[in-house]
Design a protein that fits this description.
Shape of chain A: globular
Number of strands of chain B: 5
Radius of gyration of chain B: 17 Å
Oligomer: heterodimer
Helix content of chain A: 40-55%
Largest sheet of chain A: none
Order of helices and strands of chain B: EHEHHEHEHEH
Number of helices of chain B: 6
Largest sheet of chain B: 5 strands, parallel
Number of strands of chain A: 0
Structural class of chain B: alpha/beta
Chain lengths: 271, 144
Amino acid sequence: MTLSPAMRRDFADRDDLIAYLKAEFPDAARTDAHVSETRGGRRAALERLAVINPERYAATRNRLDGAVTRLSPYIRHGVVTLAEVRDHALRRVKRYQAEKFVNELAWRDYWQRVYRQRGDGIWDDQADYKTGFTRQKYADSLPKDIEAGETGLACIDGFAHELHETGYLHNHVRMWMAAYIVHWRRVKWQAGARWFLKHLLDGDPASNNLSWQWVASTFSSKPYFMNRENIERNTNGVYCRKCPLYGGCDFEGSYEALERRLFPHKPPSER
Amino acid sequence: MMNDSVIVWVHGDALSPTNPALEEFPGAPAVFVWDDALLRRYGTSLKRIVFMYECLLEMPVTLLRGDVAAQVIAFAQAHDAARVVTTDSPSPHFESILTRIEQVYPVEVIVPDELIDDDVHLDLGSFSRYWRTAQKYAFGRGGD
């Protein structure tokens, strides 16, 4: 067996590194050549860790401008461990102030344990959809307009561009995108999960796929969906204000009305 | 134990200079292999590679590419190693690479620090069932 030539480690600056990687990984650059402002490395991870605020996190994490940590790419690649992040949080605040924060760290631990147990089975539906539709009713591939950010929905298109350009989406945005793709467009969750894994810096088959399945209802007791009011509130209305469909978009209405529209075959007893 | 008989295989789940295999064998030759087939299979975009590469540049590690098991074995041979040390991962792809390396070299797999000690039995049927037990351990020794 022959050793491949060693890849470079000396670079004048980040641009030099990026030019080298574009040349070395042309397929990756063809998929998408954006580079995130989020830098890799332990130093960058520790800078983020130093400014976490577990108490504010608990109160604001569902909002796009909330005190989320942006540590996920570093945790995903083991640049910092969950135990390290937990210990750091508990040095800053009392245990009761860190309850929610540690609970959310535990989701990652949970997904990793399920992955160890089920392996590549995490690509399969863990159960039937609980939407009133069989899996055959869902399309196999992601519609082009979603990937291109051309659905006409300002929020969804904005999120698609953000994913491609930054490799990051707020967790709430991931849930909205997944719900839109699976429930509004009736596409198999696997198509959306594959798209996310191409781009998310924290992309991990376990957290990613199992969260998609949680939204889809193949790994939860009911489908997750949202309405426009939820999106508007948690984004401070930045997308709704500029959306040409405002007031008449796909997400308009009460949860009851949306549920009847999205899942017409679901027995009322399960609603 | 002599460090010069060991090589460290670094993979994408432990891209830190504090990787426990590197800490246990400081100075041992270490290697990371870009898995071309895996990158193609996932259609991984450039920004993910840049991020990982920046992590790797802070680590004392030789960067190779190609078939991971074959490259790790070739690297071990080039360094006259007697065995390979790495860190654990739940990925089935990691398992299959490990199995191939083990056909040629003994491999020691070090488990990085976890949120919850591994000997605790946890029901993985749902997050709430898991959390019922996990919450007793998830706060480690740092809680009040």
